[in-house]
Design brief:
44% strand, globular, alpha+beta, 23% helix, eleven-stranded antiparallel β-sheet
Length: 199
């Protein structure tokens, strides 16, 4: 009985140990070096999952996001493709496609998503937060770095952003998980793949 109990305890400890081991060796860079690299990363693509929660509603599904400088192409879809939403745009024009049709706006993606879906998600800032960098167009952030001088969390405006996990992509560490929240909304992003933009 004691042997069986010991085996169970050892198994749990081994699983716990495996779960805490990062998938790569964290890079030995200071924040200024990391920031310089992140500022050069203006084109990327990610695939992953999202979960959005408000006081009265929640939605989760898959996420595809391609960023080319200021132009973005974001796809959100629920299980089996249900409730698919595609948001494309640049600083001058935003187009939102849903199963109910197409909306075009010129006041930014946040306003168009709020009109269509009722959520004020900070898409303009997320293009920077997604790669682990503060939004340079917003108020100076309050940044907390982890032991490897990566951003552990930042507070910018009304939004608090935390980074529990990083992944390695093209010799630079990018977030593997991001949690964004304010008093009305909580958004969790899990990035499964960082990729080169599609042609």
């Amino acid at each position: 009985m004691k042997c069986a109990t010991l085996a169970v305890v050892l198994s749990v400890l081994m699983l716990s140990g495996c779960a805490s081991v990062p998938s790569h060796t964290p890079q030995l860079l200071d924040w200024q070096q990391r920031e310089a690299r992140l500022q050069q990363l203006t084109e990327w693509r990610l695939e992953g999952r999202f979960a959005i929660k408000t006081a009265s509603d929640s939605w989760s599904g898959s996420l595809y996001w391609q960023q080319r400088d200021k132009a973005y192409d974001i796809n959100l879809s629920g299980p089996f493709g249900q409730g698919a939403v595609r948001l494309t745009g640049d600083p001058y024009r935003v187009v939102l496609n849903t199963s109910e049709g197409e909306l075009v706006g010129h006041e930014g993606p946040e306003q168009l998503m709020y009109e269509a879906l009722g959520w004020r998600i900070p898409i303009s800032s997320l293009q920077y937060w997604a790669v682990g960098h503060p939004d340079p167009a917003k108020s100076p952030p309050l940044v907390t770095l982890d032991e490897f001088e990566r951003i552990a969390s930042l507070q910018q405006g009304e939004w608090h952003v935390s980074y529990p996990r990083y992944r390695l992509f093209q010799q630079i560490e990018l977030p593997g998980k991001i949690v964004i929240k304010n008093q009305q909304l909580r958004v969790r992003l899990v990035i499964d793949h960082w990729l080169q933009p599609e042609e």
